[in-house]
Specification:
six-stranded mixed β-sheet; threonine biosynthesis; globular; Rossmann fold; 10 helices; NAD binding; 2 domains; NADP binding; diaminopimelate biosynthesis; Dihydrodipicolinate Reductase, domain 2; binds 3-amino-D-alanine; alpha/beta
Length: about 325
């Protein structure tokens, strides 16, 4: 099995390598792939140096699987070229997510939809993944009518340059501006570009992707996505209205039993999910579980996950693991 990691030099790329190593992902050959300016660079995997190769060379080597994290335009151009030589592409960009011919997969929810015919598989947006994973056990029990989500997103979601901007500002140094404003000691109600309807693209991703992953266009979703000066992960305040009433003790049980979800909910002892604790973890953490007393059948919850892990690298590696375990490769 030949595995390619495309975009191996980026923040998500290095996280993918870490997750592959931690999960002991089986392969015979590893191709580390990046844009022309990184070709020839050395990157270590499990203590062994690998030389970065270019995209055209990687296609000619026909890997069985390629995990892409190289941005939308690289995916648009190169994913079909890999697919043509038989590679299964698992793509982290937004390029294919809403394409009706491509599946948008969170393995714990809908990996069963995958078949051998799926050559380009889309990984959802980070803020969507952690929300739908925590909602899935409740959705299957009570049904969801409406979701109102507000996010508190880490600068790592923008990439290394954004982390550098925040750190330079913190150190009082001159910062290269990635955001339109200072990010340290600030909060930006602005993630990705504004759309004609006044929402940002990040907000629209949460709305559209949630419906696609749950295969349910009737679920109403509204979102406000916000960048905050933190690094460990994304946090989300979610207000969810179910079709049926719920029992809070049962909600806790369902969440505790859900794969990939950890309940941290002990307010008396100041226990609740925080990005500081979610950092480098594969799971999604849920807490502050409480009934919305202003409306029937409605729950408030707080969801935190490392956006580079379950929000990107972990989910992509899990898709590859599913494909391997189920004979799709
Ligand atoms: C963010 N949604 O945090 C992103 C990254 N995929 O900006």
């Amino acid at each position: 099995m030949k595995l390619a990691v495309v975009g191996a030099t980026g923040l998500v790329g290095s996280e993918i390598l870490e997750v592959l190593a931690e999960h002991n992902f089986p392969f015979d050959e590893l191709l580390l792939v990046a844009s022309e300016r990184s070709v020839g660079k050395q990157i270590d995997y499990k203590g062994k140096p690998y030389t970065v190769i270019g995209l055209a060379e990687a296609v000619s080597l026909k890997p069985e699987v390629a995990i892409f994290s190289a941005g939308g335009s690289t995916s648009t151009e190169w994913a079909p070229k890999f697919a043509e030589v038989g590679t299964i592409v698992i793509d982290n960009s937004s390029a294919w997510r809403m394409d009706p011919t491509k599946k948008l997969i969170v393995p714990e929810i809908n990996a069963k939809e995958l078949t051998k015919e799926d050559k380009i598989i889309a990984n959802p947006n980070c803020s969507t993944i952690q929300m739908v994973l925590a909602l899935e056990p409740l959705r299957s029990r009570y049904g969801i009518k409406r979701i109102v989500v507000s996010t508190y997103q880490s600068v790592t979601g923008t990439g290394k340059a954004a982390v550098d901007q925040m750190m330079a500002e913190r150190a009082g140094e001159k910062a290269e501006m990635v955001y339109p404003h200072k990010i340290d000691l600030n909060v930006l109600p602005h993630i990705d570009v504004f759309q004609e309807n006044g929402y940002t693209k990040e907000e629209m991703k949460m709305i559209k992707e949630t419906k696609k992953i749950f295969s349910d266009d009737t679920i109403q979703v509204t979102a406000t996505t916000v960048r905050i000066p933190t690094m460990g992960g994304h946090s989300e305040a979610v207000n969810v209205e179910f079709k049926e009433d719920f029992d809070l003790a049962e909600v806790r049980e369902l969440l505790s039993a859900a794969p990939g979800v950890i309940v941290q909910d002990d307010p008396a002892n100041n226990v609740y999910p925080m990005p500081l604790n979610a950092h480098k973890k594969d799971e999604v953490f849920v807490g502050r579980l409480r009934r919305d007393e202003s409306q029937a059948n409605t729950l408030n919850m707080w969801i935190v996950a490392d956006n580079l892990r379950k929000g990107a690298a972990t989910n992509a590696v899990q898709i590859a693991e599913y494909a391997l375990a189920n004979g799709l490769i």
